[in-house]
Every structure is written in structure tokens, then in C-alpha cells.
Amino acid sequence: MGRRSRRAQRALEAKPLDVARARGGFAMRQSAGDGDWMVRPAGPAAKRYTCPGCGRTIEPGMDNVTVWEADSLLGPEVGMELRRHWHTACWYARARRH
Description:
alpha+beta
């Protein structure tokens, strides 16, 4: 039986889980009367944010969603940089109104 190549060995090695990336989940496209939005569950907040929906603080440890325009005129990178953290309940209440 032959030896495995280094490339094959590296592929079999366990890679550590990037917890910060894994907790974020995948972005979902949502349509509303004011356009299309990318919405990603952000998990527990790492720092304080102000929710654009209610103006209240999202405290560290609170679950929230990150939202940005799906089709930003300035490109997807700029759209992502302009993302905002919302209370999950505020975002879904807002989506029902639009």
C-alpha cells in the first residue's frame, strides 16, 4: 500500500472551527416594498449597537440580525459595509409593515 501525499494528508487533518464565522449563519434574501435586503442571523452581539428600527440599544449578548441592501448601487462590498444590526423582532415587524 502506497503512502499518502502531503496534500491528501492535509485534506484529512481536522481544521479548527471558526466560531465567530459559524455563529453568523447564512444571509437570506428578503423582499419588501422598499427593496431587496440581505438578512443574516448575527447571533449574540459582541458589542453595543443601535437598532435602526426602534432606536434602542442592542446590548452585548443579545441575538440580532445584520441587514444590508441586496443590490446596492455602489456594489455588494459597499452594501455589506453599510450593514446595520437590528433587533430580530424589530426587523421582522418592519418587514411585515412593508
